[in-house]
Design brief:
Length: 280
């Protein structure tokens, strides 16, 4: 703590202001303002069709917003293309495990690193010195990413031969190999059993402890309530709540939004109770 007992202000990694996008006259995301604090885990939740993945697509440059601004570490990145956003330090995974199963674990991770290299098609065809340097850099960056996700020992195995959890880790390594500051995880626990989900939670905590900022879209409320520092709740494309897991789980607007799904409502209630028990 600084002299005089004053606490340092919390650094904002990413801030969106009035963010929105329309498809065919319908608002998929509408007037969302929120911030992601650096070095924390932010969960974006909401019923099916709430606009969660669309929100991620806007942040990562896959979609261009109809309205609003996106600021990353103080820089306006609203109109940047996807590869430019990645170059600034934002990487993401997808709902489905988008890995190349016929390639090795290392080759998959190297693909993620290629956005950081300078060599072009001509360099690749002629195997220039620049291409060889970039290849070495990609290999080193990929191995570092595999170390972080616990797969360095399986670098030369086919990615498709790994377990579901292993393949999820490959996908995360592909994102990490671009050396991001902010990692966006889109339903990272989808298709995973409870043991695998616990292992994944441990990995995410390790990544954040190592200096990464994480935002995740997730339906598994046990993971959200046990992992997130803050939660952003979307419903029909709009923000209806933002705060700590405990505060959000008691928010009347959130409870009402989830009443339409017994599964989600039950999970939220049980997870909130479990969280309270764990903090008792």
């Amino acid at each position: 703590m600084p002299a005089g007992g004053m606490t340092m202000p919390e650094l904002t990694m990413l801030e969106v202001r009035g963010l929105g996008i329309r498809f065919g006259g319908l608002d998929a995301v509408k007037d969302v303002s929120a911030s992601l604090p650096a070095g924390k885990i932010t969960a974006i939740i909401g019923p099916n069709g709430a606009g969660k993945s669309t929100f991620f697509n806007l942040i990562s440059g896959f979609y261009q917003p109809t309205s609003g601004q996106i600021h990353f570490l103080g820089e306006d990145i609203t109109r940047l293309k996807t590869h430019e956003v990645v170059g600034r330090g934002i990487a993401r995974t997808f709902q489905t495990t988008t890995i190349y199963k016929e390639l090795s674990v290392l080759e998959n991770a190297m693909i993620g690193h290629r956005v950081r290299t300078r060599a072009g098609l001509l360099d690749a065809l002629l195997r220039t010195g620049r291409e060889r340097q970039d290849d070495q850099a990609s290999r080193a960056g990929a191995m570092q990413a595999l170390e972080r996700v616990g797969l360095a020992g399986q670098a030369h195995r086919l990615a498709g031969a790994l377990t579901q959890e292993g393949q999820k880790r490959v996908g995360i390594a592909m994102a990490l190999s671009s050396d991001p500051k902010l990692l966006l995880l889109d339903e990272p626990a989808a298709g995973m059993n409870p043991e695998e989900t616990v292992n994944l939670m441990g990995l995410i905590r390790e990544l954040v402890a190592g200096g990464l900022t994480v935002a995740l879209v997730e339906h598994k409320m046990s993971l959200v309530m046990g992992l997130a520092d803050q939660i952003l709740v979307l419903h029909h494309g709009q923000k209806i709540a933002e705060g700590t897991p405990q505060a959000v789980s008691r928010d009347p607007a959130v409870i009402e939004a989830y009443l339409g799904s017994h599964a989600h409502g039950g999970q939220m209630g049980q997870a909130a109770q479990a969280g309270e028990a764990g903090h008792a």
